[in-house]
Amino acid sequence: MAGTSHGHTPAAWTGVTIAFIGFCISGAFTVMASPVGFWAGLGVVVLGGIVGMGMSAAGMGQPKRKQPHVVQHGSQS
After folding, report:
1. How far apart are CA 72 and CA 45, in angstroms?
2. Is 30 helix (H, G, I), strand (E, B) or coil?
């Protein structure tokens, strides 16, 4: 992975940071035995994924690579 730019984009960093904050919120409310806070934290985790995908769609993510086109010349049995 060191040779690629896997995850080194503003979209990835923002989405993961928001999701991490959501996990922290959810964990804190788990310790405090508050189901509403727990689910609110998981909502923040989902929000992180949505924000990351939205930023990626807006061009702040890694550009899509084109798949190489494979041409087969004849078939072998």
Report:
1. 45
2. helix
CB 36 within 8 A of CB 48: no
pLDDT, tens digit (0-9, with 9 covering 90-100), for 20-55: 999 999 999 999 999 999 999 999 999 999 999 999
Look at residue 63 in the predicted model and tell me its pLDDT: 76
The reported pTM is 0.74
- Annotate 42-76 with DSSP letters as a single string: HHHHHHHHHHHHHHIIIIISPPPPPPPPP---S--
**Tokens 């087969």 identify what position?**
72
Say which residue, 76 or 42, is predicted with more confidence: 42
Helix axes 10-31, 35-55, angle to 10 degrees: 180
Closest C-alpha among 54, 29, 63 to residue 43: 29
**Of the candidates 65, 66, 67, which has an alpha carbon nearest to the alpha carbon of residue 4?**
65
